[in-house]
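The instructor's notes for this session suggest beginning with a concrete chain rather than abstract definitions. Hand out the sequence below and ask the class to guess, before any prediction is shown, which regions might be ordered.
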Amino acid sequence: AQLSDKITELIKEAISKTRRLARGLCPVYYTHGLVSSLEDLITTTRMLHQVDCRLKADDDIDVNAHMITLNLYHIAGEAVRNAIRHGQATTIVISLKIHEDQFSFRIQDNGRGMDPKIHHNGMGLRIMNYRAKIIGASLMISSDRGKGTRVKLSMPLAALTDPLT
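After discussion, reveal the predicted structure:
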């Protein structure tokens, strides 16, 4: 009876984690804004991977373009997954800043990093670059062996507002 109760409890927990993971893969709440979506990504990352994941965002960040929000969210998700899977990071910080007329979006981890002498051309990196290009942003990925990886995206501040809204 105890074993049966334990199995039932574990199944319920697995179903709950699967639902949270599925929401993270295709969240329906992009319309709640970039910061809110990233906060959900961070919460999911903490729960599923026991990684110290944090968000640092300027108070005046307001992304009103659905396409920008969608692509930035997916770039962050890919960078977080890479940091955990390949870099074995224990800390990940996502930063959003505005400086003059530029928006800066950065994901930095404390993982093992990538060897800069090796050309990394995995599918995830290609998709991040593609997503950055379609929203008119520049993307730079840098890494120091043993010191983590930095994914930095920058774009004009004006691009954060959808001209149709």
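Then share the key points. Strands lie at 52-57, 91-99, 102-109, 138-144, 148-156. The CA atoms of residues 3 and 85 lie 33 Å apart.
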